[in-house]
Prior knowledge:
alpha/beta
Amino acid sequence: MPTETRTTWWARPGLEARDGRLVICGRDAEGLAREHGTPLYVYDLARFAENARSFREALAGPGFPYRLRFALKANREPEVLAVLRGLGAPGSAESVGIDACSPGEVLHALAHGWRPAEISFTGTNVSERDLDLLLPSGVHINVDAISQLERVGRRAPGFAVGLRVNPGAGVGYHERLAYAGVRPTKFGIYPDRLAEAVTVARRHDLTIDTVHVHAGSGWLGDGLGAFEAALERVASMTRRLMDAGCPIGEVNVGGGLGRPARADEPAIDLAAYAAVLARHLGPLGVVVACEPGDWIAKDAAIMLAEVVTVEDRAGVRFVGLDAGWNVDCSYFIYRFAKEIVVCRAADAPRTDLVTVAGNINEAGDVFAEDYPMPPVEEGDVVALLNAGGYLQAIASTHCLRPVAPALFLER
């Protein structure tokens, strides 16, 4: 008898509801949990390649020169990096570079096949010990502060650097995830100190060749207007640097693009995003660099967990899992919404309102509150979607709960 595949908002190649059951890479998700145990990260390796190619194709559309780099902090697993490294030889149009934010990430990228010229480093509060490794490594460094520029200049006069700027406008999944705006943040050099940065660079014979910005994290389709407003200010700051004689060859717009976590969250239109880049940066004649991490990684994995508690407390039904924020911190730290699918009833009507909680001994260890789910029972296996980025890379053994293992699947 043929199987029936049903469409849900989160379905994609490699992830679907088939005869009511959740299937990833052609494998029954609950069966994977029974075989390998829970909690468990389950990766669809082909999805990383699909996402990187989609992003690259969008950037290629308007015709401006571009560079695509992967933000290593989103996912540093060797199996994932092998997929990205395999997309193109160093220096080729298909190649995906690396965005690193620590000396450890630089070393990790070098160890997994990236050349120094393919790695862009942008860090904050960089120490002398950091510079001991970074300066001789050959990677490009974007400095984050005037004091950092002074330190680099004292140690490496004649060096070529980028400036991370803060345009005073940003965008994020919510206000606290905007990395620039009315509230001062620790990131970047503000417009009122841009001339001072040029003076410091000249004093140390430093060449400023790149402008870098990171507007915020996790923003979605409805944030494109705010991103454009920030980018307009970045373009103005870039012109000021050019007028001051700085040979700006690249404007790096960072990452921060998010993925929808619920049916009502709007996806980013990559073609519209690329058009915004072309409108504001195309006239500058620079290479446009993008450093998505979460957008490439997020929907390429799910987290499987077992329901170990179903209990009513003061009128609220709690669904307790054998996983906690130590292995899936997306709601606990970032307040990203979570979509949770019952593996045996992936497309069933959601008739109950519940709070889904983890096994860390803290009241804030929850994954979703007032959340609609089908009726669940103790022993059910659920999948927490969008588990490919900023989860395994951040996982800890808090409360001595173990870090979850990972399963890497080919389609």
